[in-house]
Amino acid sequence: MPSNPSMSAAIVAAAESDQIGYIEEGTTALNLHIEAIRNVCAEAGISPAEIEGIFATNHANMLAEYLGIHPKYIDTTAVGGCSFQMHVHHAMAAINAGIIDIAVVSHGEAGYSARKNQGKGTLRGGGGDPWLPSAQFGGGIYGNWGAPSNYAHALTRHMHQWGSTKEDFANIAVATREWATLNPRAVMHSKDTHPAGGPITVQDVLDSRMIVWPLNLLDICLVTDHGGAVLVASAEKARSFKTSPVWIAGAGENQSHQDMLEMGDFTATSALASGEQAYRMAGMGPGDMEMAMIYDSFTVTAGITAEMLGLTPRGEGPSLWADGNASPGGKFPVNTNGGGLSFSHSGMYGMMLLIEAYRQLSGTAEDGVHGLPGKQTSAQSAIVNGTGGSLSVTGTLVLTADV
Amino acid sequence: MPSNPSMSAAIVAAAESDKIGYIEEGTTALNLHIEAIRNVCAEAGISPTEIEGVFATNHANMLAEYLGIHPKYIDTTSVGGCSFQMHVHHALAAINAGVIDIAVVSHGEAGFSARKNQGNGTLRGGGGDPWTPAAQFGGGPYGAWGPPSYYAHALTRHMHQWGSTKEDFANIAVVTREWAGLNPRAVMHSKETNKFGGPITVQDVLDSRMIVWPLNLLDICLVTDHGGAVLLASAEKARSFKTPPVWIAGAGENQSHADMLEMDDFTATSAHASSEAAYRMAGMGPGDMEMAMIYDSFTVTAGITAEMLGLTPRGEGPSLWADGNASPGGKFPVNTNGGGLSFSHSGMYGMMLLIEAYRQLSGTAEDGVHGIEGKQTSAQSAVVNGTGGLLSVTGTLVLTSDV
Amino acid sequence: MADYNKPIPSPDPYVTQPFWDGAKEGKLMLPRCTSCNRVHWYPRILCPHCHSSSIEWFEASGEGFIHTYAVQNRAFGGWADETPYATAYIDLKEGDRMFTALRGVDAENPESIKIGAKVKIEFDQADEDTYVPYWRVVE
Amino acid sequence: MADYNKPIPSPDPYVTQPFWDGAKEGKLMLPRCTSCNRVHWYPRILCPHCHSSSIEWFEASGEGFIHTYAVQNRAFGGWADETPYATAYIDLVEGDRMFTALRGVDAENPESIKIGARVKIEFDQADEDTYVPYWRVVD
Hints:
The complex is a heterotetramer, with 2 copies of chain A and 2 copies of chain C. Chain A is built from 12 helices and 11 strands. Chain A is of the alpha/beta class. A 4-stranded mixed beta sheet of chain A has the order 8-11-10-9, sandwiched between helices. In chain A, strands 3-2-4 form a 3-stranded parallel beta sheet, sandwiched between helices. A two-stranded antiparallel sheet of chain A has the order 5-6. In chain A, a hairpin with a 4-residue loop joins strand 10 (381-388) and strand 11. The radius of gyration of chain A is 22 Å and the shape is globular. The two termini of chain C are 28 Å apart. Chain C has one helix at residues 17-24, and strands at 29-33, 55-59, 63-72, 85-92, 97-103, 118-125, 131-137. Chain C has one domain (17-137): CATH 2.40.50.840. Chain C has a 5-stranded mixed barrel with strand order 3-4-5-7-6. A two-stranded antiparallel sheet of chain C has the order 1-2. The chains are: A alpha/beta, C mainly beta. At the A-D interface, helix 1, helix 5, helix 6 and strand 5 of A face strand 3, strand 4 and strand 5 of D.
């Protein structure tokens, strides 16, 4: 039973940026944030490295990267001027749950200077409040145009560092497509749903159009329309619905960087940290998992994440999919909806992971999506990992069936 | 001591929008959301009105308004595709704290249709993913251009409904300016800090430029640069810093609407509900409060909020500031930093409320900002209320000194 | 119409089309839930009161009353030429509320405008396809 | 310079100016923390390693090594004319990492590019005030 969180947390320090008000020499929202965080840490006598949770309406990921910290809780709730009161409310819940001990709620807004800086920005003609340093020195200037052009650099490095091959990663797309053929709602289910649908081979992946070397078209997720929702309810109420509960045994989140400029190891993500957090909360480990839903914006995303979640040794992520292990009928089903690669991916794929994990663990994976026989697995536990940004941020859940 | 939140919540249902994938006839992100929420509630056998928490990367406020619900917890964390795993993580914490029992995590993204709809939007040339109905039928076509032009309608109605006067509200600005006179960092502290600074009278407010009748310039907050941060820590750690703790005795949040089209009573906000939640958690009431920090984007915001927080009878909000009651040396100090009206307001003012409340209750209200004597009050408890949007969303905290 | 220099709505073709089709013919079309029989504004794919998806459109009276108003002394774009002008929320006879720029009032004299005053709808042609509704005080 | 048809950075005048001033003179200026003596890239108002605010700028060697790379076969705007071109993260001799579009490589032949290859910086004048750094493979 939940207990009243009153007095389970306190505000322990407060500070402002170096200057406030009408700053004639001008400033940026980011600078205001960083000054305030530096000052509040100095007042409290701690290092910013001790901050475990970040709450901010803007620049939250950037703040963590800029300060070189890896928060275990990030809340970017932005609903206007009351957002900060809500951040305190949310931080209190997170602290009360024992997820974090120290959080910063930060604010930086150049209401005055942004007017002066109209039409300027990180890039010429950028407009609005300007100037993220990572953007100023990152992709835009040099012809990086989106997620594929960023993620490709990670695959190059993985092949260099671990001796993996294009074929290894292409096989992830092949196994994922197998699952799509069992899901009539999958965009790539068959030739009936899409001219390019139906089973594919490793050679098909390698022969598909090169988008950003070393990423071919079939290494890359779809861009679709998608709506989805899950309901989350307290343990007390969880069995009072028409539908059955799937338990949240563990949860964790973490960020390693925002821009790839600050990604130390291009073959590792914060899924290691968020996965560890989720396993610890659940009192379980990778060996206890019976299936996985892994974000597959690109084959390289899925491959690296498999390593981070402890499902394969380091450098051998793609082996999770090898020899039919993760395929329909295999020992360890992965991405049983057909994945972002072949099912549906609207840009932010994390909801699709949740829905499919719920269906598998509640035994509704077939009729829930009018599926064909063979899609429903016998898994009673699942590890679910979402990846956001440029391999930047991850959220991991350990879910278990109701028994 | 926090307890492990593992298994304190479950995912109890999952559903998609009516269609997913490449929707040839087109759709909008909002429609995808609403379809998914309708479907997930139908599957679980509940009404959307039973939803207490809304978690979404986009349109979160709109979803609640569209469905006619008033969530007690809103999380708009948006950090890419992993946001949904993080929403489940956050919902777990909120449920574990007993703040909510049922939450929806929702997703709607027209990755495919938005490309087709490029250049279309709520207004001609709007661009991007288009079309929230409230914007289509709200202010844009009719020359409403920002918060002042909307908020003015609430003041007109308050005067009509409760017999209040322009003078009553102008006095809020006068009293708030008195506090600014004790805060050298306040933009309007004195003629030295700004040529319009220093004490003002009710007549000054009424004589100031009419921006949107019935709001004069001095009824309206500043637009400044501002950075700020507060640190939060667990009860176990709260006394381990150089700075003292100020306790979070209660917290609550709520939303009554997003667009003013759906604001039923123009003289009431969700601060009524969010403060009830905060008082209940704290086991305290308005009579236990010794000061207040109240969002004053406009005099009308502060006046109405005073009523919602139970600090005055209905319709008599401005009376809180009457007869020097809320002024320096008065019985019930309000907005002791000089408020958004005269201290600083960068657009989202909520952080300034937090910083000043911390300073007052930790006894650092003077030297914390190099203040002059008279700003530090003797208050040991404060109610802190932020208001966002168009009097739409509120977050309320009950804070107490360390004793 | 060529003179219409104010922001023009870009109708959402998925939900709101019946309203804009009616506007072209000078009719106020409103959505009503066939399950709970209540009118709601703005248009939705489900009823905000009972969450039914059975919505029908009907031709409304085009009459209402001022709920509250303000006078915009400052404005931008095409509206800048019109200051001061009054904006208002209109309580519809059939229920729920619309927003508008008010006609038939003396915006120079804000106190002369009466909450509760009766208003009627009219439509301005903004471009070939789009007719924007306005409300005029008629008493 | 008149031909520069790619996105041009709009230097942030509060933090990064020393870099852009150096670029005009063909120098790679880098920020270094005087407290922990570590170089960091991108420029900041505090050191990401020890959070000191004592940052100094110094002229770096302009040399580095390829950390990883990709070849862009698809692009937009001014970059569309250049496909395929290689982008890369560069490990600086002095520490930390920059991003660039690579020169002196055969982008038609991605496998010919070597991780670890030595690169040197050069600057392109993009407009009157802005010189954009590029890195060229030199061995």
